[in-house]
Amino acid sequence: xxxxxxxxxxxxxxxxxxxxxxxxxxxxxxxxxxxxxxxxxxxxxxxxxxxxxxxxxxxxxxxxxxxxxxxxxxxxxxxxxxxxxxxxxxxxxxxxxxxxxxxxxxxxxxxxxxxxxxxxxxxxxxxxxxxxxxxxxxxxxxxxxxxxxxxxxxxxxxxxxxxxxxxxxxxxxxxxxxxxxxxxxxxxxxxxxxxxxxxxxxxxxxxxxxxxxxxxxxxxxxxxxxxxxxxxxxxxxxxxxxxxxxxxxxxxxxxxxxxxxxxxxxxxxxxxxxxxxxxxxxxxxxxxxxxxxxxxxxxxxxxxxxxxxxxxxxxxxxxxxxxxxxxxxxxxxxxxxxxxxxxxxxxxxxxxxxxxxxxxxxxxxxxxxxxxxxxxxxxxxxxxxxxxxxxxxxxxxxxxxxxxxxxxxxxxxxxxxxxxxxxxxxxxxxxxxxxxxxxxxxxxxxxxxxxxxxxxxxxxxxxxxxxxxxxxxxxxxxxxxxxxxxxxxxxxxxxxxxxxxxxxxxxxxxxxxxxxxxxxxxxxxxxxxxxxxxxxxxxxxxxxxxxxxxxxxxxxxxxxxxxxxxxxxxxxxxxxxxxxxxxxxxxxxxxxxxxxxxxxxxxxxxxxxxxxxxxxxxxxxxxxxxxxxxxxxxxxxxxxxxxxxxxxxxxxxxxxxxxxxxxxxxxxxxxxxxxxxxxxxxxxxxxxxxxxxxxxxxxxxxxxxxxxxxxxxxxxxxxxxxxxxxxxxxxxxxxxxxxxxxxxxxxxxxxxxxxxxxxxxxxxxxxxxxxxxxxxxxxxxxxxxxxxxxxxxxxxxxxxxxxxxxxxxxxxxxxxxxxxxxxxxxxxxxxxxxxxxxxxxxxxxxxxxxxxxxxxxxxxxxxxxxxxxxxxxxxxxxxxxxxxxxxxxxxxxxxxxxxxxxxxxxxxxxxxxxxxxxxxxxxxxxxxxxxxxxxxxxxxxxxxxxxxxxxxxxxxxxxxxxxxxxxxxxxxxxxxxxxxxxxxxxxxxxxxxxxxxxxxxxx
Amino acid sequence: xxxxxxxxxxxxxxxxxxxxxxxxxxxxxxxxxxxxxxxxxxxxxxxxxxxxxxxxxxxxxxxxxxxxxxxxxxxxxxxxxxxxxxxxxxx
Lengths: 1003, 91
Ligand SMILES: [Zn+2]
What we know:
By secondary structure, chain A is α+β, with helices and mostly antiparallel strands. Chain A is built from 23 helices and 50 strands.
C-alpha cells in the first residue's frame, strides 16, 4: 500500500466521513466531498489510464471537465455502467467501482504499449493513410482498431434509471458560480429579477473560494472569506434559483439553453432508488450572463505527459480544497504568475516545492516576491527539455532558453521530483459564447481569443475570466461595470468594493518549447487523449494542410472527449508560428454542443418505451386485441394487420382472409383513413382545383374517387369524396397522408385562393369506418339496417345514404377498395365498437371474416388499385400509373395540371406502372426487387422495380405490380428479376388481375 | 430554436411552427399560358439567401394560420412578421 497524501487541514472535505471505493478491483478509501480523482491522488495513485494511440501511461492532469487522461469506466452493472467518465468530475460515493479504460490486460502492463515503441510508424494521419486501402482489408483493420483503441464499454442492458426534462423561464440566467457569476447573480437578484444561477460543481465560488492569501483581499478580508459571506447571503433571495451540479451543454439562439443537472450520481447506490438521476433543463432566458471562467493551459515540451504531471492550478485545488498533496517533492513549470499561488499554497501545507522553472526573464510581482521570500528556488529563462520516469515522473532535465526562445543553451540540470506542475497561462471558456453565434477576437497581449462584443448576439454578456480578464481587481470592477449597463442598474451594493491583488507585469509565451534534442526525437504532446504531438501538426502543415479544421481532423488534435479544451490554442499557435500567420487571422475551430457530454438518458428524458411516440388506436382496437390481431404501425396508428387463427402463419391467415372476403364476406376497420369535412359555397370549385377530375356535376348523395397531385404533377394522395349536400363534402385521404393533405389544402385556401368560401375540418377521430365487403355483404347490412333499401336502383355503387343504427345516425357509402360489392359504415366513434360487434353477430351466418391491412392490400392488388406511397413514390404522374382517365382534360386548371405536359413528364420512357406474372405461378417476388432485361449486359441496366407482390388465393398464382421504364408499351414482354441465388422470369401484364369487367361490384 | 411572434397568437416557440419556404411566390393565375421554362421558374426556383429572407411560416401546432416572416438566415433574427396578403415591409 502506498502512503496517504492527505493532509489534515481542510475546509471542504468532511474527514469524519470515510467513503470506500474500488479502483481496478483495489479497495481504497477517501472522504465525503472527494472526487474520484482527489481520492486516487490521496492514495498516491497517479497512473489511471493509457493513451489512445501509443498506450502511454497517463495520470490525472486536471481537476475539471477538461481532464484528458483520467477517463474512467464507472460501475460494472450491465444496465448502468458508464464509460468515458472523467475521474475529476465524479463525486466519491460509498461503493463506487471504477476501472481504467483503454488498457489490456491492466493499466500497469499494457499490450498496446508496444505502440509507443512503434510510434515512428504511427504519425499524423496514420489511420487515414494505413487503414483506408485496400478497401477489402477494412474489416480486418477494424477488428484491431476496435480492440486496441476502444474507449470504454457501453452498457449491454437497457438503462433502468429515470431521467427528466423541465422547462424554465427567467429574466436572467447566470452560467458559472465563480466570483463573477456570484456578483452577477446577486446584482440581478437584488434588482428583483427572476434569476437562475447554474454551476457544474457541488460548491459555489470557483477558484476564489479557496484563495486564502494576503495578496488577494476584498474589503480588507481574504478574498475567499469575503466571497463565502456573499454566497451564504444568496439564500435570502427568493427570486434566485441556484442549480449546482448542473452544466450548460448548449447555448442556442434566442437565449435557449440546455443544462444537465446531476441529481443522484453523487449518492450511494442504495440512496438512489426511485429518484430521478438527471434532469435536462430547457431554459429560455431574457438575458444570459456567461461567467464560465477560464482553464489553465499546459506547456508543450518533450515528454510532458507522464503520470505525476498536473496543471499548477489543479495542484493548488487538490491541496487547498481537497487537502491532498499531489506529491512529496514538487517542481513547478510556468510562464505566468498564477503558479506562484500554487507554490505558496503548497508551502503553507508543508509540501516541498524544490524549484520553479519560469520561462520568463523575471517578475517582480507581490506574489513572486513572496515566493522568493519563502526561499523557493526560481530558475528564470529556463525550460524543461525532458522528463524521466515511465509510470510516474522521477526527474526533469532543465536548460536555459536562448534569448529568442527557439533553442536551449548552457548546461543541462537534472532535478528530482515526484510531481511536476505546469502552466502555460489561461484560456477563456468561450465555447458557449460561440455556440450562441458570437464571434471571437484575438487579444495579443494574453495570446487568447475573447468574445468580440461587437459581434455578440444581443441579450447576453460575458464577464470575468471567460472575457479575458484575469486580475482579481480588474475582474471585479469590470464585472460590476458591465452588469450595471447590461441590467440597467443605477447604484449597486458593490459600487465601493476595495480590492487588492498581485499584478502580473511580465509575460512570455512560447507555444512549443525547445529541447536539446531535435523535434523529431521528442514527444511534446498537444492532445493528450488522442496522442497527437506538436510534430504531427508540423507534419500536417508540411503535407499541405492549411485550414485549422483540416489539421485538426488529420492529426485528431482536439477530437477527444475533452474537445480540445486544453490544447487547441497550442495547435493554433504552432500553426501560426510555422506558417508565419497571425493567430487572429487563423481563427479557431468551431465549438459545437454539447460543451460537456450528455447522457442519452438525459436527452430522451421520459420519452422512452410507450412514451417514445404517440400511439393512435381506433375505437375498435380493443376488439382486435381480444381477437388475436397482429398489428402494424401506419404512421402513429396501430392498424390490425391480420387475425391469425390457432397457429396460422401470417401467410396462411392472409390467404384465408382474402379468400373469405371474396367467397362470403369480409370486415375491415378502416377508421384510420383521413376524413376531412369540407363546407362552403365554393366547396365544389375547391375540389375542382385540388383533384384532377371534375366535381361540379357530382350529384348530391354520390361518391367519386379523386387523385390529388403536387404542383410538379406527381401523384400525392387519393381517396373517395362524397357529396353530402349542395355545399358539403366529406373527403377521405390515405391513413398516412391525412395530416399533410389537410395542411396542403389549408395552405392553398389561405394563401392562393383566399377568395374561396371553404371551411375544412378534420373529422378523422370523430368518425369510425367499418367496411364490409363480399357477395354476402348485402345480407349483413340488411340485417343491421333493415329500413335501408339496398337495391341497386336505390343505392347503387358509388353512392351514399344517411341512415340510423339503433337511433344513432350513420353514413353508409357503397364504395369498394376490394372490387367486391361493399359498404362502408361511418359512425360516431364512441358507437363504433358496438356496431362492429353487431356486424360480426349479424354476419356470423354469412361466414363474415375480419381481415387486416395485409389482406386489404392483397385484394386491391388483385384489382390493380394503387396504394399511394407503396406503388407511388412521388415520381409518378397519373399517366405513369396508367390512370389517364382520371385527368379532367376540359378543366382549365388544377394543382399540378401544367406539369403534366412539361417536356419531362411527357417522355414515354418514364417509369410506368405495370402488372407482373411470374413464369412459375408459385414464385412470389420480393417487393423492391429490380427488373432487368439483359442479365449479361455489364453494367446491368435496371429497368424498374417491384412495388407490390402477393400470392393471390383467388387466382391461385403469384401477382405483382411494378414500375418499369416505358412499361406501358411492354405488355407481354419477358423480363428478369435477378435475386441473390436465382433469376426469376416474369412477364409484363395488365395491372388488373381479377374481375376485369368489374362484375362483382354489383354481384 | 427561435421564437416567432405569430400575428394571431403572439410569441411562441419555433417548435410550434413549420416553415413553408420563400414567400411572395404567387401561383400563376393562368398556368396554361406559360412556357415550360416559365412554369419551371415558378415550380422549382427558390432563393436561398444568407441574410434577410422573406419566408412563409405556418403556426402548425397553434392557430394553423399561414403568415410571412422576414428572417436573417445568418443569425435567425426575425425583423418582421406580417399576415398573408399584407405588403412586405421595405428592406
Ligand atoms: Zn398562431
